[in-house]
Amino acid sequence: MTKNMKILRNRGFRWILLMCGLLAIIALTGMNVLSLYDLRDRMVENEQDRRIDQLDEINDNVMYQILQPLRGLHRLELEPINSTLEQTGNLPNNITQVLARSSQSPFFDGIYYTPESTDLCADGRNTTVYKFDPTENKINSISDYPELICDGIGLVRTKTKIQLNDLNYRWNNDWEFDTHRSLNIGLINVSESRMLGYITLLLDKDYIINEVFPPILTNYFKDSDESGIAVWVRSWPGGDILATNDPDIEYDSDIVDHRMGFSGSGFFDNWSIHMAFLKSPVTTTYNATLVKNLVVLGVAMLFLTGALLFMFFTAQRERQLAQRQASFLANVTHELKTPLAVMQAAGENISDGRVTEGKRLKQYGEHIHNESIRLRSMIEKLLDVARVDSGQNSIKSAPYCVYDLLKNYLVENREYIENKGFEVEFIASDKSSLAMLDSDNFETIVSNLTENAIKYSSEDKYFKFQVSSDKGHVFVSITDRGIGIRKRDQRNIFKKFYRVEDSDSMSNKVKGHGLGLSIVKNMVDMNGGDIEVSSTFGEGTTFILSFPKLENENVDPAPVQKTEDTASLNQKIEKHTEHVG
Ligand code: ADP
């Protein structure tokens, strides 16, 4: 397998790994989001279940309060009840105590005793029923009793008779509610498995509706604003609302989430409790928790994705840099060797005395001169890079007149540029602004940009150097009409070792190592400036340097070194500048 194939395979593999990583992140996020929603729903459901369970508690609580005074009845000796009644006209003491206790309960509105021997419903109103008198702790025979006693006794008699068929039945009493109207207790002779009589306790409906339900509902469910729950006790089949925890919420069967009948031996059989889960603060809290969790999850996943992508692309860039560096080393070695070989051969020919003729001697001398210049510029570039890399690139800045610096560069290099066939234009709209600069750096910057413009020129060989300024900056721009740089390459050209390497691009054919602009950028930065490129592919490029203007007017500009034998060129440029600037 060739090296290229290996690189391609590795690159493909890395991309697959990245995709797997991203997919894993997406899958994990999806799973977490789903389970967060699930958790929220379950929490809300649990909360609702808990509230529904509270309805059972209310049921049991009210029933407990009603039955409370009758506790202990199952332990009493009941057999002598009718014989005592015959002999004394009253019930035995133990029963009388229970009835006295019950008469104190606000739930009851009259207590009656009916012996089994009285076939109440069949006999109608002629039969004697006993009513308990709490003031005298005694039962008195009455003939005018409420008719509903008959219904209650009928219910408990039927139920108790069924119980007595069970041979294992061991209780001395059994009870049954006749809806909200009465509590009926059947008294049993356990040893003989027969009924003795019935205690009927009439229930005070108004007390239950007005005094029992409202406080208990408020106690459990507070105001609906607070709990997000509305509860109604409704009568059936009429549908009247008997009690509620929040009178402000109107009953509407559409908003009811849960309906429950009262339970326990006919207990409030014709009433039911309806519950509606409104916008509960609990649900709002769970929603807020959900949102908080989602945000944290989102941020974490973004970080994770960001870190993954960052690591991937950084590794990619490092690899590219390493590749570029490796090819740079190979090129540099080759390019250092070439001028050396030329110089060595030319020098050898001269020193051997093989070349003596004047014209050819001059030719060889020029070869050696040109190659040594090439070699020097390469070595300087390498040294610049080494300095930048090692961070030892210290600068010696002084307040320079930017116009003077650029003019000086042009005076020194104009002939060189023109010899390459270029037309040079120099426009200065600012000839006096100062900036703190290292003059050597400035020269390196401008010469790199100039060399590039020469290297990447087209048929139209033209140069424009400009100096201008605004309130706070001095600008130097260098414009060419060369091959131009595509938009996508423009943000990369300042990177070390970056070269535009299109197969169709001309820059591919020009020699270079992708170092010039990175050195330029570094030096511009060190001098507190900025560099921008503006280019149209196929039309030309402008590099714009900007340096902070030195505001202090009292500062004298540092002298710009001038080459002596360029006085005439200097004049020429001055003339041109006066004309344009
Ligand atoms: P080198 O010239 O050694 O390749 P540089 O860092 O100086 O490296 O330039 C980087 C790339 O920018 C070059 O490869 C070239 O494609 C592009 N470039 C730089 N200056 C110009 C210019 N004036 N016109 C067109 N392309 C340019």
Structural write-up:
- By secondary structure, the protein is of the alpha+beta class.
- The protein is 51% helix and 19% strand.
- The chain has helices at 3-67, 81-88, 93-103, 120-123, 148-164, 205-221, 224-227, 281-351, 358-390, 402-419, 439-455, 487-490, 516-526, 567-580; strands at residues 108-115, 129-133, 138-142, 173-178, 182-189, 194-203, 229-235, 241-244, 258-261, 271-277, 398-401, 423-428, 434-437, 462-469, 473-480, 530-536, 540-548.
- The protein is rod-shaped, with a radius of gyration of 54 Å.
- It starts with a helix and ends with a helix.
- The site of adenosine-5'-diphosphate has 22 residues, from α11 and α13.
What is the share of helical residues? 40-55%
Distance between the ends: 63 Å
- Which small-molecule species are bound to the chains here? adenosine-5'-diphosphate
Write down how many β-strands occur, each being a DSSP E stretch of 2 or more residues.
17
- The helix count comes to 14
Question: Which segments are poorly predicted (pLDDT under 50) over 5 or more consecutive residues?
Answer: 563-581
Indicate the mean pLDDT: 85
Given the C-alpha coordinates, what overall shape results?
A: rod-shaped
Largest sheet: 6 strands, antiparallel
Percent of residues in beta strands? 15-25%
Instruction: Using the CA coordinates, give the radius of gyration.
Output: 54 Å
Q: Strands of the largest sheet, in order across it?
A: 3-2-1-6-5-4
Offer a quick outline of the entry.
This protein has 581 residues and is α+β, with helices and mostly antiparallel strands. It contains 14 helices and 17 strands.
